[in-house]
Design brief:
Elements lengths: L8 H12 L14 H9 L14 E3 L4 H13 L7 E4 L15 E4 L8 E3 L9 E6 L4 H9 L3 E3 L10 H5 L8 H4 L6 E8 L4 E4 L5 H7 L7 E12 L3 E9 L2 H12 L7 E7 L2 H7 L23 E9 L8 H9 L9 E7 H5 L1 H11 L10 E6 L3 H11 L9 E7 L19 H4 L1 E7 L10 H18 L7 E2 L7 H8 L3 H11 L17
Parallel strand pairs: 1-3, 2-3
Antiparallel strand pairs: 4-5, 5-9, 6-9, 7-8, 7-9, 10-12, 10-13, 11-12, 11-15, 14-16, 14-17, 15-16
Helix pairs in contact: 1-3, 13-15
Bound molecules: flavin-adenine dinucleotide.
Length: 523
C-alpha cells in the first residue's frame, strides 16, 4: 500500500480510513499525488546517517497544526489501527529516528514557517522572543531575527536542522556552557499530543507536557510552534584556535574558559587524530595555518593534537575592545606555543561555519555517505578514561571526521526536561557540576568502507557505549540509540518511570516517533 498525499481534510480522512481498515489496500497500491511525491516518500526512508532505511506507507504534508491534530485524533480514536506517526524535521537523525516503518511520516516543513519576532521595548518587562513553527530551520530563524538586530542565544553547530528536531533532543554547541542547551532557551510551545490534543504549554501552563517534550525524543507530542528567547546580536566575532599536545592541559584550559562567562561567548574543542582531520576542520576557519603542528614525532610515530576553539562576541555594550578581552583570556592559557590562530568574522558566518564544510564535503561526494556517529555525555571524573577508551578503539591514522570534546555546566540544564545527563560516581560538588559532550562524528566513504566495515564501526561504537556506561565512567548517550528496552531502561535510570508515565499520559497508544525504538504501538 502506498500513499503520497497532498494535505486536504478529505485526503487526511482517506488515508486514515485506508490505513485503519482491516481489509487494507495492500493488493492495489493507491497514489494520490504526482510522481515527485512518490520520490519524496522514498527520501523519507533516508536520513543523514544512511544506516536505517524504513519506508513509510504514507506521507502527510500538513498546512497547519490542525491538520496534524486531525490525523492524530482520528488514529487515536480508531481502535483497530496499528499505524504509527513520525514527525520529520530536516531528517538529520543518524539511526532512523524520524522514520516510520509502514506508518505515516509528517513533513513538518510543509507548514509555512511564519516567524514572528517580538523585540522588547526599552521600558518593557520580559524578553525579546521569536515565535517559529516546529518545522522551520534554525538558519531561517537566524536570518529573520538578525533583521531586528536579535538572535537566539543557544545554537547547534549546524543550522539546517529543524526547531522541533533539536528541541526533541537538546541542541548543543559552544554557547551551551553559558546559556544552556536550546531546550533551556524556550519560553512556550504548541504541541499536538499522541491523542491529537493541540496544547499551548510553558513553564507555568501545562508544564508537565512542556518539560516532557523538551528532550523527549518526539515521544509525547509534535511541536508545531516554539517561542525562542532572543538576545541582542553581535556584529562580529573574534574566533580563536589554540593547539595542545597534552590532554590534561587541554581540558584544564577548557574548564578555565567556561569559568569566565563574562569574557568568553563560545567554547568548543576537538581531538585531531591526523593531518587530514586538521585540514578538513580548518575549511571554515580563514586563518593561514602556515606553521602547523607536526603530526609525526622525531621518532617517526604519529602524534595526536587537541584544539580549543573559543570566541568573543563584539558587543558594542562592552567597554573594553575585543583584542584586549582575547589577550586577557589567552594570557591565562597553557597551549603549545606558537600554535594559536585568530580571525575576525561576521556573526552570521561564524554561526553558519559548518555549511562551508558541507559545501566542501558535497563537492568531494563525501556528504551523502553513511555516518556512524556516536555522541556521549561524560562526567568530568571519567573524561580521561573515556578519551583513552576512544583512542584505543579508533584507527587514528584512518579516522575521517571531527571528534568534538568540550565541557558543559550542569546547572544550565532544567532537571525536569526529559533529557538524560550523566551522574558522576565519586567526585566533589564542584566537579559534579562539569560534564563533557564528546561527538565522534565519523564519515565512511563507501569507496573504502564496505557494508561490513560500516557494521564493524557500529559494533565498535556499541562496545564503547557499553564500556563507558559502567559506573567507572558513568557516561550517557546524547541523541541516543539503543538495541533493546532493557538498554533504554538503563539509559533513563531513575528517570525511566517518569518517562513511561509521560508516555502513558500523552501518547498512551504509542503512536508517535516509532523510529526511536523505545515503545511499541498498542492497539
Ligand atoms: P529529524 O531527524 O527530522 O527528527 C529527529 C527526531 O525528532 C525524530 O524522532 C522526529 O520524529 C522528532 N521530531 C522532528 N520534528 C519534530 C517536531 N516538530 N516535534 C516533535 N518531534 C519532532 N545536535 C546538537 O545538539 N548540536 C550540534 O551541533 C549538532 N550538529 C549536527 C550537525 C549535523 C551535520 C547533523 C546531521 C546533526 C547535528 N546535530 C547536532 C544533531 C541534531 O540536532 C539532531 O539529529 C536533530 O534531531 C536533527 O534535527 P532534524 O530536524 O533533522 O530532526
Amino acid at each position: 500500500m502506498e500513499f503520497a498525499i497532498f494535505c486536504t481534510k478529505v485526503n487526511i480522512l482517506i488515508i486514515i480510513i485506508a490505513l485503519c481498515s482491516p481489509c487494507k489496500f495492500i493488493q492495489s497500491p493507491i497514489d494520490f499525488g504526482p510522481p515527485n511525491m512518490l520520490q519524496a516518500k522514498n527520501t523519507l526512508s533516508l536520513d543523514f546517517g544512511r544506516i536505517i532505511f524504513d519506508s513509510p506507507s504514507a506521507v502527510l504534508r500538513p498546512q497547519s497544526p490542525e491538520d496534524i491534530s486531525l490525523l492524530l485524533t482520528s488514529l487515536f480514536a480508531s481502535s483497530f489501527s496499528k499505524v504509527t506517526v513520525a514527525a520529520r524535521g530536516a531528517g538529520h537523525s543518524i539511526r532512523g529516528q524520524a522514520q516510520a516503518l509502514d506508518g505515516i511520516v509528517i513533513e513538518m516543513d510543509s507548514i509555512p514557517s511564519n516567524i514572528y519576532i517580538h523585540k522588547r521595548g526599552h521600558d518593557e518587562e520580559g524578553f525579546s522572543y521569536a515565535d517559529v513553527s516546529g518545522g522551520a530551520m534554525w538558519i531561517e530563524l537566524l536570518e529573520e531575527s538578525l533583521k531586528f538586530g536579535l538572535s537566539p542565544r543557544s545554537w547547534t553547530d549546524y543550522l539546517y536542522l529543524s526547531i522541533g528536531g533539536t528541541l526533541s533532543n537538546g541542541g548543543i554547541s559552544g554557547q551551551t556552557f553559558k546559556h544552556g542547551p536550546q531546550i533551556s532557551n524556550v519560553l512556550q510551545l504548541d504541541v499536538v499530543t499522541g491523542k491529537g490534543d493541540l496544547i499551548t504549554c510553558s513553564p507555568t501552563k501545562s508544564s508537565e507536557l512542556f518539560y516532557a517534550v523538551l528532550g523527549g525524543l518526539g515521544q509525547f507530542g509534535i511541536i508545531t510552534r516554539a517561542r525562542i528567547l532572543l538576545q541582542e546580536a553581535p556584529q562580529k566575532v573574534k574566533w580563536v584556535r589554540a593547539f595542545y599536545d597534552d590532554f590534561d592541559a587541554f581540558t584544564m584550559d577548557q574548564e578555565l574558559l567556561i569559568s569566565m562567562p563574562d569574557l568568553v561567548d563560545y567554547l568548543e574543542g576537538f581531538i585531531i587524530p591526523n593531518e587530514p582531520s586538521l585540514l578538513s576542520s580548518s575549511i571554515a576557519f580563514p586563518a593561514h595555518l602556515d606553521s602547523m603542528p607536526p603530526f609525526l614525532s622525531e621518532g617517526g610515530s604519529s602524534k595526536v593534537y587537541y584544539c580549543i576553539e573559543f570566541a568573543v562576541y563584539d558587543f558594542q555594550v562592552r567597554d573594553t575592545n575585543v583584542e584586549q578581552v582575547v589577550e586577557k583570556i589567552t594570557s591565562q592559557m597553557s597551549y603549545k606555543a606558537p600554535f594559536i590562530y585568530s580571525v575576525e568574522v561576521s556573526y552570521f558566518d561564524f554561526l553558519n561555519r559548518v555549511s562551508m564544510e558541507e559545501i566542501s564535503l558535497r563537492s568531494r561526494g563525501l556528504w551523502e555517505v553513511p555516518h556512524p556517529w556516536l555522541n556521549m555525555f561524560v562526567p568530568k571524573s571519567g573524561i580521561k578514561e573515556f578519551k583513552c577508551l576512544l583512542m584505543d578503539n579508533i584507527a587514528v591514522n584512518e579516522f575521517e571526521g571531527p571528534i568534538l570534546i568540550y565541557p558543559l555546566l550542569r546547572d544550565k540544564w532544567h532537571t525536569n526536561t526529559s533529557i538524560v545527563l550523566p551522574q558522576a560516581s565519586t567526585c566533589s560538588e564542584e566537579d559534579e557540576q562539569v560534564f563533557y559532550i564528546v561527538g565522534v562524528l565519523q564519515s565512511t566513504n563507501p569507496a573504502s568502507c564496505s557494508a561490513q566495515c560500516l557494521d564493524g564501526i557500529l559494533r565498535r561504537n556499541r562496545r564503547i557505549v557499553e564500556a563507558a556506561s559502567t559506573e567507572k565512567i558513568g557516561a550517557k548517550q546524547y541523541l541516543p540509540h539503543h538495541p533493546s528496552l532493557m538498554h533504554w531502561h538503563n539509559h533513563f535510570g531513575r528517570h525511566w518511570n517518569r518517562f513511561v508515565a509521560h508516555k502513558n499520559l500523552f501518547d498512551p497508544l504509542g503512536i508517535l516517533a516509532p523510529g526511536q525504538g523505545i515503545f511499541s504501538r498498542i492497539h
